[in-house]
Write a structure and sequence with these properties.
globular; 6-stranded mixed beta sheet; 26 strands
């Protein structure tokens, strides 16, 4: 009885304890197989599939109709040094505020004189400034040329415009002004150096064509005229004898100079005007000084139907990224007058480094957040352009 109870309980124990194990060959094969599986797993984890993630960037609009802008050169440096213009913006880093300070300086040193023909200097910026500092006054076209030279010397892309109400037999005068590219806003804004003012809507500075839109819509009641570096709103300008509405009416008709290099190319300047050909233009006539604008029907006028051709975006980058395995090839494109270089930083690092227009980046990490910008010879930087590369 004790045997029968002891027998069955002891046999299973002996069976499992003394069952034959794998041979040394089997152990080797198992080890090799396991190692192979680990290697395969690790290699699978290390191989990443990269792709470009969509991000929102400032819109790039190519320049197709404007032919030239001022060059940043020794003449620009001389202009800044001679008139101590660096002291005007000393300590100010905000781009828009710097521009307004420079514009205000022009008004502080140049008197307004609308009927002073012949004017000393005429198109020579330095000569006009010398005479202005001695008390000579000038009209709007002179202010326009000087503002173009000064802003361009500091690296701000600037162009010259003509405008007027264009009303036959009533108000057919002409005004000279500028548009300046604002990198921080990624847009052009109208700058009147003669009267030290511009227009804004909800705090955003407006271009000449935007002012025209507002005037034709409802007499510009939805926008403000603002004056000086402090951007003080006004309804009536005593110096000009014009109301806000009168000023807005000046932009019923607008022409842009295709060549904007009067300072660095004077007197070898080529005249060519650009006008926006919309329905208003086709159905009306611009009158200037009692007769249709002199450029009608001449080789000096180019009509443009696409608004974006006039309002292209300088200093703004467009990019193309092609990924091949773990290499990203990035090509940058922009219209940047006086381009010095492109720069890049890899977030979260804040350090900017020079990069070629075409470059390659070897990809190892899971995610890359790259930021690019154009830099001109004056050190002015364009709007930032982002590229994000991630892996699955």
């Amino acid at each position: 009885m004790n045997q029968s109870c002891a027998g069955p309980s002891s046999r299973p124990s002996a069976f499992f304890s003394h069952a034959p194990g794998p041979s040394s060959v089997q152990k080797y094969l198992i080890l090799v197989f396991s190692f192979s599986m680990v290697c395969t797993f690790m290699m699978g984890c290390g191989k990443r599939n990269y792709f470009v993630s969509e991000v929102e960037n400032p819109v790039y609009k190519p320049n197709t109709v404007f032919q030239s802008f001022e060059e940043i050169s020794s003449a620009s440096d001389h202009l800044i040094a001679k008139y101590h213009l660096d002291t005007v913006v000393s300590g100010e880093t905000d781009e828009f505020k710097r521009i307004l300070l420079l514009r205000h300086w022009l008004v502080s040193v140049i008197a307004i004189e609308d009927f002073g023909d012949p004017y000393p200097g005429q198109g020579n910026v330095e000569y006009m400034l010398d005479h202005a500092l001695e008390g000579q006054g000038y009209h709007c076209a002179h202010f326009m040329r000087i503002q173009n030279a000064v802003m361009s010397a500091f690296g701000y892309v600037t162009r010259t415009l003509g405008s007027g109400p264009g009303v036959k037999g009533e108000n057919d005068g002409h005004h000279g002004i500028n548009e300046i590219w604002l990198n921080q806003y990624n847009k052009w804004f109208l700058s009147d150096a003669k009267y030290d003012h511009h227009f804004e809507k909800n705090g955003i500075p407006l271009s000449a064509l935007e002012v025209r839109d507002e005037f034709l819509k409802n007499q510009a009641i939805d926008i403000q005229s603002v004056k000086g570096p402090a951007r003080v709103p006004f309804d009536f300008d005593e110096a000009a004898g014009l109301s806000h509405t009168d000023f807005a009416a000046l932009y019923t008709w607008i022409s842009w100079d295709a060549n904007n290099n009067r300072f660095t190319r004077w007197p070898d300047y080529t005249e060519l005007l650009i006008m926006y050909e919309d329905d208003f233009h086709r159905n009306n006539t611009w009158y200037r000084d009692g007769r249709p604008h002199w450029a009608y029907g001449t080789e000096y006028l180019k009509l443009v139907q696409e608004r974006n051709e006039i309002y292209f975006t300088p200093n703004t980058i467009s990019s193309e990224t092609v990924i091949n395995g773990n290499v990203a090839r990035i090509e940058l494109l922009s219209f940047t007058p006086n381009l010095k270089e492109y720069q890049m930083k890899k977030l979260p690092d804040d350090k900017w480094v020079k990069v070629d227009p075409e470059s390659e980046i070897k990809l190892k990490s899971r995610k890359y957040e790259l930021v690019f910008r154009a830099v001109n010879l004056a050190g002015v930087t364009g709007p930032e352009h982002s590229i994000t590369i991630i892996s699955n």
